[in-house]
Amino acid sequence: MMSTLHLSKVMKNPPLSVAALLIVAVIGLCGLFDYVTGYEVSVFVVYLLPIGLAMRYFGTGGGVVVAFICSAAWIVADLQAGHPYHQSWVVYWNGLNRLVFFLCAVAGIHHTQATLAANRRRLQAFSGPLPICSQCRNIGSPDGHWRDFESYICEHGGAVAVPKVCPDCARKAYASAGTAQVIAQR
Prior knowledge:
This protein is an all-alpha fold. The chain is about 70% helix and about 0% strand. It has 6 helices and 2 strands; from the N terminus they run ααααββαα.
């Protein structure tokens, strides 16, 4: 039981050397799969798996490096599979096309990760205990500064405060204005 928990923890956050070996092994398996299926079957989408792993463990820079390695692995697998080309430069042109696709995938994964991180920060600003002054209703930030409610919502929630009057306050304001008007007329 304990070893299963330890293995789960290691797989979730493995040492970088283990993650690098895993990525290299997956690239090798992708290249082998590409070679075995032959040049008539395009399986270049499976190369997104090591690119995604590299992005997970090494960030965008790791994803870019692995995208180049995956493009090279695709070229090797294609040539070893015996794909005949009428011109020798076509294989490199196709490899460049794969590289552009892989780099677009890296950009897409990066954008998704950045969006998720921003949403996670926004959600954390509104979860858990939120210190609110019982006198002035200001909200305490984790940095130690106190902000009024509208500023806090705008800063952490991305909302824009729009001044409005709720129906209850409107009735009270109009009632007190009507009372003042009646008193002034007497």
